[in-house]
Amino acid sequence: MLAEYLPLLLLAVVAFAFVGLSVLVSARLGPNRPNPVKEAAYESGILTEDVDVRQSRFSVRFYLVAMLFIIFDVEAVFLYPWAVTLRSMGWYGMAVMGVFILLLFETYYYVLRRGGLDWD
Amino acid sequence: MTETVLFWIIAPLSLGTALSVVVLRNPVHAALMLVGNFFTIAVLYAVMEAQFLAVVQVIVYAGAIMVLFLFVIMLLGVERQLDFGERIRGQRAAAVFLGVVLLAALTVGVAGPYLGADSACPTTAEQQTEPAASPQACRGLAEANADGNVFGVGRLVFTDYVWPFEVTSVLLVIAALGAMVLGRRAEQDSDLVDVLRRERVPAGGVGDASYQAELQQSLEEDPR
Q1: Interface pTM (ipTM) of the complex?
Q2: Which of A18, A106, B82, B142 is buried most deeply by CB count within 10 Å?
């Protein structure tokens, strides 16, 4: 039962150990000659002093993309048990999922036509 | 036995992370605590042998829902001073009242039927052969997961709970429409902010001739 999760636990242990060891070893063995330029925080070649990412805001369009992602993620989650039980349900199962998917595709079509997926 | 031990390890962690989400002032810290909470809940599901729920908890909540939360945090700006004052008059009192009502409803409606003596899980072999006394009576995990956990979930969702399942679809449609209405209102060019120079883009928009000239000039002065 719970012993089935032992490999998962081992994987987690190995993953954390790998990260910990990497950090430790590079800190111990790596040469450490800091200077102000090396210490400066940067992102894609731009110094974060110039662009404070903590102060800037994302476009609200990302929110729309994230919301659409969740909607189709939930759909995929329902598709899995549906696919497993489909043989025992027959056409009833097809009809039930048909209604569900029809409603979601109607939404998808609406979003597509309203330009929800266009970036400009 | 292992279940009990794991429960007493995980349950305090779950409560602690959940409280931290509410108490911590930094939204990023709160979001991290929320991820931790999602994982503890997933472990609790796994301990109860609801493997499908455990995996879905990680994929949907720790994955997708968390991305949405982080986007909202980034939309607002992490270190922006937010006004935590009351927006609606008496919202604290209303929140406490509704919280108590929800707790009572959950206790009576969901947990209630399982608190009686007849719903106790059969532990001895002879008890297990007896027919179930009530629909809520513990039928045993072996029966629930007889054809595999995913099959058991699927059978229930698409037969007994088919109506809530279809309503979920409507709920998702509403969520998408809400996001469309909020996210795609006609954007004014003057709403745009030049991130690098932290200045408002002039009314003419990015294509405005004087703005372009100014931009060109600033690039020549300081070619970053």
Answers
A1: 0.72
A2: A106
